[in-house]
């Protein structure tokens, strides 16, 4: 049988990834070439691993020191992520009296499962939506385990407190991609008598997720979507949150509320609060679409930029956020009596309006999400823009579609953004999502 080095090289031969593999794959093949798993690598798994090794040397080095993970990757099959997600949610983690060991275990879990998902993703062994769902469930699982650690570390303080972690945005809709942050808010039952305990618990949870240890960081946490934003308290009581959403919250906060879901802690009670608050928001008064257009213009002006050397696939005109705003506006317009329990953008939009134009828009939205995922993977961090030239663009193009040239990728993105923007402008001119109905 050919060596691991030659088979990895063959899997990406003739591409920009093949040119990179010789430099990025040496450490990996040095450590794992003699493993039994190396002999079982074939097909889509082999291609996925080769693409991972060629694009992210740090990830390749991580896998090279974890033979059990390499075994799992070599044996991966279609559907294995769904089975692994079920295991994650049901696993009982043995207690460890050493906090640092426990925190490291969370980080290693996140890194191992992300590596596995990346190999299946880049090899085409699992659909993009399945990858997103798995990465989201992984984040929810780690958040719950970090919350359990935070509770135990505080001993009696807050041990009986009804405290809930609310996932926002992509996490709520299970639309995570590589290097997504955790957008979280924290709710609790009670008044001022327990706010200190609730605040300590939230602070400890954030630290357990975001603090750097020897195994890295679990997740970066963003809490700016809480009531009153950065000026508001870190934690909010259930009743106070519901009052705030009904009487004080601005349009942007109602948009955020639509993509909120209880993911850890007292999820049942918290979800009831969210559902009631969301029902009130969906009776939004005033000139909704004017408010949304103003918000969207501010995002474009502040975050999109106008450099011809960058493609703003998320915040720019015709980017992902156009569809995000349409989906949120559709529900705030009151066109759905039953918003989706899992608030993905696609589910929100379909709950309000259906038809061929909606499905065409969602296909374009999916394509831009793939661009975002590939750009983030190649960059190794969260990014909102794609460099319009250089090797990075060529690598992203190859990961989007084998053999796709950088020029063809840019043309496809531009055409997609024109269609998305046309849909956005049709709705905002008519001031109703019904403009998408044929």
Describe the protein in words:
It contains 20 helices and seven strands. Strands 1, 2, 3, 4 and 5 form a five-stranded mixed sheet that branches. Strands 6-7 form a two-stranded antiparallel ribbon. Strand 2 (182-188), helix 11 (195-210) and strand 3 (221-222) form a beta-alpha-beta unit. The N and C termini lie far apart (58 Å). It has 438 residues and is α/β, with parallel strands linked by helices. The mean pLDDT is 93. Among the domains are: 126-281, Beta Polymerase, domain 2 (2-Layer Sandwich), CATH 3.30.460.10; 288-436, Nucleotidyltransferases  domain 2 (Four Helix Bundle (Hemerythrin (Met), subunit A)).
Give a quick summary of the entry.
61% of the residues lie in helices and 6% in strands. It is of the alpha/beta class and 438 residues long.
Give a quick account of the main beta sheet: strands, pairing sense, barrel closure: 5 strands, mixed
Instruction: Give the class-level CATH name of the domain at 126-281.
Output: Alpha Beta
Helix content: 55-70%
Put simply, the count of helices is 20
Query: Could you say what the CATH topology of the domain at 126-281 is called?
Result: Beta Polymerase, domain 2
Work out the strand percent. Answer: 5-15%
SSE string, helix = H, strand = E? HHHHHHHHHHEEHEEHHEHHEHHHEHH
Spans of 5+ residues with little confidence (pLDDT < 50)?
none
Give the number of DSSP strands: 7
Separation, N- and C-terminal Cα atoms: 58 Å
Based on secondary structure, the structural category is alpha/beta
Any idea what the CATH architecture of the domain at 126-281 is? 2-Layer Sandwich
